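Example (one chain per record):
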Amino acid sequence: MIKKRINLIINREDYRKYEEIFYYLQNGIYIILLIFFIILIYFLININNLNKKIDYLNLEKTSILKIISANTDKYARLNYLRKKYSDLTNFLKEDSNSYQYYLLLNTSLQDSSQSASIKTFIIDKDRNFEFTVIFSDFSSMRNFFQFLETEKFLKNFEKIFLKNFHIIGATVDKSENYELSFYGVFMPYEKLINNYYENNENKD
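Predicted structure:
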């Protein structure tokens, strides 16, 4: 027997279930597409901003390179000055004030004898020294030995020791000379300056 009609009442409940499923599915697809579209726009805007920043940085780089190439000599001189300044700073850190110590020692020697002179002078950054004094006659050397024992001379040193004593014989061209070599440790430079001024005040 052939059925000429479809019984929709039997499948109506199933149809409603499918209809709800398709409805939610359709809405879900729309929401997903909307989210995807928003994300796509966000990335496109960011990419556009990044491209603008890259273009700006490239322009800055080109401008800086032009400035550098136009001022190569100036930058070279500036780097040279920086290096010299750094070298001078390092030198001053290691400097022992050797010239100032030499001047004070020489002045002190002149007080003891007019013929006394410094032949060699070495000092390091820790104020350790070695120096040699030369005399043209015996009486000058004797006067210096007396001066060695005075507080005026000794207070310039933390330690001082006699290292060597030499007599250089007379020749055709040179008279007899006497050499005394010393080693030890100087007082700090500030104390030496104070001692020097005190000595001069006492003279006055």
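Caption: The longest strand covers residues 157-168.
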